[in-house]
UniProtKB/TrEMBL annotation:
<feature type="binding site">
    <location>
        <position position="334"/>
    </location>
    <ligand>
        <name>a divalent metal cation</name>
    </ligand>
</feature>
<dbReference type="InterPro" id="IPR015867">
    <property type="entry name" value="N-reg_PII/ATP_PRibTrfase_C"/>
</dbReference>
<keyword id="KW-0479">Metal-binding</keyword>
<feature type="binding site">
    <location>
        <position position="338"/>
    </location>
    <ligand>
        <name>a divalent metal cation</name>
    </ligand>
</feature>
<comment type="similarity">
    <text>Belongs to the GTP cyclohydrolase I type 2/NIF3 family.</text>
</comment>
<dbReference type="InterPro" id="IPR036069">
    <property type="entry name" value="DUF34/NIF3_sf"/>
</dbReference>
<dbReference type="GO" id="GO:0005737">
    <property type="term" value="C:cytoplasm"/>
</dbReference>
<comment type="subunit">
    <text>Homohexamer.</text>
</comment>
<dbReference type="GO" id="GO:0046872">
    <property type="term" value="F:metal ion binding"/>
</dbReference>
<feature type="binding site">
    <location>
        <position position="69"/>
    </location>
    <ligand>
        <name>a divalent metal cation</name>
    </ligand>
</feature>
<protein>
    <recommendedName>
        <fullName>GTP cyclohydrolase 1 type 2 homolog</fullName>
    </recommendedName>
</protein>
<dbReference type="InterPro" id="IPR017221">
    <property type="entry name" value="DUF34/NIF3_bac"/>
</dbReference>
<feature type="binding site">
    <location>
        <position position="70"/>
    </location>
    <ligand>
        <name>a divalent metal cation</name>
    </ligand>
</feature>
<feature type="binding site">
    <location>
        <position position="108"/>
    </location>
    <ligand>
        <name>a divalent metal cation</name>
    </ligand>
</feature>
<dbReference type="InterPro" id="IPR002678">
    <property type="entry name" value="DUF34/NIF3"/>
</dbReference>
<dbReference type="Pfam" id="PF01784">
    <property type="entry name" value="DUF34_NIF3"/>
</dbReference>
Length: 375
């Protein structure tokens, strides 16, 4: 009987194609947290956090992978002890052979990620990225490869994170030509002889590289390329990346009052209480959203003419700034604006796995709770 279970590293690769690690903030820690990359996986549990509750559910449901939004290992660990909270979770996960993987700020910035799901829950239309990635995020890599090694090198680059353009991956352009070189004394040429000019049929391979992935891509290029000295060019690009970035901004089909939007948030996001900045009867139509902590986007939301920003974790001085800018705020809380990732990731992974040779059951955690109690 054919084994259709993917390995953990296969699922990590699939997840990274959907939500590239290069999109994550520099301070973040995304991807594999705990686990054996070669482990076979047939059941996944998706949760907001890797905690005692979600790990217990993964164990009870016989899931080999716990996929979370928030990293279990956020900062470097000086020790792993069963006597502290994170250490005991790591011990439990290893003992029960449950891998832990997270998609955090890369999921926030990606297309069809957290903020698109949040915009959809609030029924926004004409949705755009609120704060797109800065120009310079992408580089073009041009490398010259012997024709019979073209595919091998291309696949190595794609596996390292090159070749992604919006909702497409493995993007590249190839053209053929004649390369020439003369190996000098002390060289060890793959083709040709020392002191003799050699002409070789080569492929000029061009692809895109996210700047944060450059070191990894170049390492894989040098490993896969057969030449002793690899000829390649790196071209900085000023292309805007409008489909990737933090937050979203869109419009309602018709204006509602701020309090009516608050009630919609309570219904759609499952939160019991919200904090408002602005007049409750104020009409709002152009809506900015950012799951989790979005106070850093107050200025951008105001500049783009948003009537209100829906987010979480608003502090006192954030509220004062928004008030002074004439921007209303709806603080629905960190938990409520992010717990929607469970259903969102389940749907996205199910679609992606349908087009793959693998068979995996995907479940979502139950009884996840906001750590805050409102009285």
């Amino acid at each position: 009987m054919k084994d259709n279970r993917p390995r953990l590293q296969d699922l990590c690769g699939l997840l990274h194609r959907l939500y590239p690690p290069a999109l994550a903030e520099s301070w973040d820690n995304v991807g594999l947290q705990v686990g054996d990359p070669m482990q076979k996986i047939d059941r996944i549990l998706i949760a907001l956090d890797a905690d005692v509750n979600s790990l217990h559910q993964a164990r009870q449901r016989q899931c080999q992978l716990l996929l979370t939004h928030h990293p279990l290992i956020f900062k470097p660990l000086s020790r792993i002890s069963s006597q502290d909270s994170s250490g005991s979770l790591i011990f439990s996960a290893i003992r029960d052979q449950i891998a832990i993987v997270c998609a955090h700020t890369n999921l926030d910035r990606a297309a069809d990620g957290l903020n698109d799901w949040l915009a959809a829950h609030l029924r926004l239309e004409q949705v755009e990225v609120l704060q797109p990635l800065s120009p310079g995020y992408l580089l073009k890599l041009v490398v010259y490869v012997p024709a019979d090694h073209h595919q091998t090198v291309a696949e190595a680059l794609f596996a390292a994170g090159a070749g992604q353009l919006g909702r497409y991956d493995h993007c590249a352009f190839a053209s053929t030509g004649q390369g020439s070189f003369r190996p000098l004394a002390g060289s060890d040429p793959f083709v040709g002889q020392v002191g003799v000019t050699t002409e070789v049929e080569e492929v000029r391979l061009e692809t895109l590289v996210p700047r944060p992935q450059l070191r990894r891509v170049l390492a894989q290029l040098l490993k896969a390329h057969p030449y002793e000295e690899v000829a390649y060019d790196l071209l900085p690009l000023d292309n805007p990346v409008p489909h990737l970035g933090l937050g979203r901004i869109g419009r309602l089909t018709q204006a509602v009052t701020l309090i009516e939007l608050a009630e919609r948030c309570k219904t759609e996001l499952g939160c019991h209480q919200l904090r408002l900045v602005g007049e409750a009867t104020r009409p709002v139509r152009k809506i900015a959203v950012c799951g989790g902590s979005g106070a850093s986007l107050i200025g951008e939301a105001s500049r783009q003419g948003a009537d209100v920003l829906v987010t979480g974790d608003i502090k006192y001085h954030d509220a004062c700034l928004a008030r002074d800018l004439g921007l209303a705020l709806l603080d629905a809380g960190h938990f409520a604006t992010e717990q929607i990732i469970c259903a969102g990731l389940q749907q996205a992974l199910t679609r992606a796995l349908t087009a793959s040779p693998w068979s995996v059951a995907i479940e979502t955690a139950q009884q996840q709770q906001d750590p805050f109690t409102f009285i």
